[in-house]
Design brief:
Blueprint (H helix, E strand, L loop, with lengths): L1 H49 L4 H28 L18 H8 L4 H14 L6 H12 L6 H16 L4
Helix pairs in contact: 1-2, 1-5, 1-6, 2-4, 3-4
Keywords: Signal
Protein name: Lipoprotein
Organism: Photobacterium gaetbulicola Gung47
Length: about 170
């Protein structure tokens, strides 16, 4: 009986060891997603602060960014568990997953939670832009050409990305 328990325990060790890197990689990628979403939220907030009439388009833009990044979060975890070859884990974290339009469309046709997330992102990519999209992009360009205007959120983002890059998954 003890021998069976020892054998069973030994058999489980490799899967526990293999699970640790996947958890680390997933956590690292999730932190990147969260940092990116926070950056876009801050950028929209600054743009709307300067031009309150951009609030509606800013919320529309953020919704699209959320769909995009949440799809990437879900897809990353799916590929990590099912098809690691799709991931470029030797590159910086922001390059670990590269979904083409064709990939997103194929995923959107699945009847799963991942498929639902892909459908939201795919529909965003296919939809007509918000009428104030150009005005929002111009506001972003204005903010980005004056680094002092975005210093605090940019430093926060850069600090988070530096900390994320320092995470080593074995």
């Amino acid at each position: 009986m003890k021998l069976a328990a020892v054998i069973l325990s030994a058999a489980l060790i490799p899967s526990a060891v293999l699970a640790a890197p996947a958890s680390c990689e997933s956590e690292k990628y999730h932190q990147y997603i969260d940092a990116s979403l926070n950056w876009y939220e801050n950028l929209v907030e600054l743009a709307v602060e300067k031009e309150p009439s951009l609030d509606e388009v800013g919320q529309w833009f953020l919704e699209g960014r959320k769909h995009h990044f949440e799809l990437n979060r879900d897809a990353f975890d799916w590929y990590l568990a099912n098809d690691r070859e799709k991931l470029a884990l030797s590159l910086p974290v922001e390059s670990w997953l590269n979904l083409s339009q064709k990939d997103v469309k194929a995923l959107s046709e699945q009847d799963s939670e991942l498929g639902k997330a892909a459908k939201l992102a795919f529909d965003d990519r296919q939809s007509k832009p918000h009428p104030q999209n150009y005005a929002l992009r111009s506001a972003f360009a204005e903010l980005l050409t004056h680094p002092g205007n975005i210093e605090k959120p940019l430093n926060t983002y850069n600090e988070k990305m530096t900390a994320i890059a320092a995470i080593e998954c074995q």
